[in-house]
């Protein structure tokens, strides 16, 4: 449940805002950003997800100025930690408007990966996207503040 003025709240974001989503999957992409690239990647992920009859992993996605961390909602096991500096793009898909996705560079291979998540409501997908955008801004502000004195 998001408070009405959640966009003004810097405090919780420093600690991390949590969203419970279903992980749809990942596909490799050519470009680090762009709406068309993301839309095509999301279509591929959703198409693949529909074919597999498996249940989607429920994850707790935490957004902070450090980046995005993914934790299994059932086991509480850490799935992945993505540095804010490795994330190049995030979006809520226009057609699949309950789908939130981000593009990040893989730490292992250096390849660009688009990860997609299904949220219970369109508003939540949009909130995750806005929260990530806010985290980017905050990370930049913190970085600039840290380097201002040098």
From TrEMBL:
Alphabetical list of PROSITE patterns matching this protein: PID
One Pfam assignment: PID
Entries under Gene3D superfamilies matching the protein: Pleckstrin-homology domain (PH domain)/Phosphotyrosine-binding domain (PTB)
Matches recorded under SMART domains: PTB
Top-level taxon in the UniProt lineage: Eukaryota
InterPro entries for this protein: Adapter_Engulfment-Domain (IPR051133), PH-like_dom_sf (IPR011993), PTB/PI_dom (IPR006020)
Start and end residues of each PID domain: 16-141
Protein name stated in the entry: ARH protein
Lineage of origin: Eukaryota, Metazoa, Chordata, Craniata, Vertebrata
Encoding gene (name): Ldlrap1_1
């Amino acid at each position: 449940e998001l408070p009405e003025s959640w966009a003004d709240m810097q405090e919780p974001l420093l600690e991390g805002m949590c969203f419970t989503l279903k992980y749809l999957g990942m596909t490799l992409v050519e470009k680090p950003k762009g709406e068309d690239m993301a839309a095509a990647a999301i279509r591929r992920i959703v198409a693949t997800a529909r074919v597999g009859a498996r249940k989607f992993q429920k994850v707790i996605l935490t957004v902070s100025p450090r980046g995005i961390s993914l934790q299994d909602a059932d086991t509480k096991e850490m799935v992945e930690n993505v540095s804010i500096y490795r994330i190049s793009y995030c979006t809520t898909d226009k057609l699949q408007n309950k789908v939130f996705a981000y593009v990040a560079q893989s730490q292992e291979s250096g390849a660009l990966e688009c990860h997609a998540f299904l949220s219970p409501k369109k508003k939540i997908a949009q909130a995750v996207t806005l929260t990530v955008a806010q985290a980017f801004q905050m990370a930049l502000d913190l970085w600039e503040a840290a380097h201002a004195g040098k």
